Amino acid sequence: MFNVSEEAQKQIAEYFKSNEIKPIRIFLHQGCGGAQIGMVIDEKKDADMVFKVAGIEYLVEKEFLKKARPIAVDFMGSGFRVSSSMELGGGGCGGCGSTGSCCS
Fold first, then answer.
1. Within-domain flag for 94
2. How far is CA 97 from CA 33, 46, 51, 88, in A?
3. Which of 4, 9, 15, 25 could pair covalently with 59 via S-S, beta carbons 3.0-4.6 A apart?
């Protein structure tokens, strides 16, 4: 239902060596390029499912989890990648950031 790769665990542990350990929220956000799944430091809410992996709590809103499971967090190259079974549609912008686009 929820997985964090060894490389992602390593990178997150490295981050928390110099920062206070707090829960990480996995969430769906709408951007110029369409819907994406992201990660952010956050606090627990009543509607969250909590997964503890290698001492770190990951928060996923229960309704989102129903639609997105399984969710996988990985680290590739220089960044994190969060994937799920959820189909994410593209955005409606012609040219993100260009004059007259929906993102400017």
1. no
2. 11, 36, 36, 21
3. 25
Instruction: Tell me which residue range forms the domain holding 68.
Output: 2-84
Give the full edge-to-edge strand order of the sheet including 71-76: 2-4, 71-76, 79-84
Rounded to two decimals, the pTM is: 0.80
Of all residues in the chain, what percent carry a pLDDT higher than 90? 65
Distance separating the N- and C-terminal Cα atoms of the chain: 37
One DSSP character per residue, 44-55 reads --TTEEEEEETT
Which residues lie below 8 Å from residue 63, measured CB to CB, with a gap of 6+? 47
For residue 104, pLDDT over 70 is answered with no
Tokens of 103: 């993102």
Total domain count, the chain: 1
Residue 32 has pLDDT above 90, yes or no: no
Helix (H, G, I), strand (E, B) or coil at 15: helix
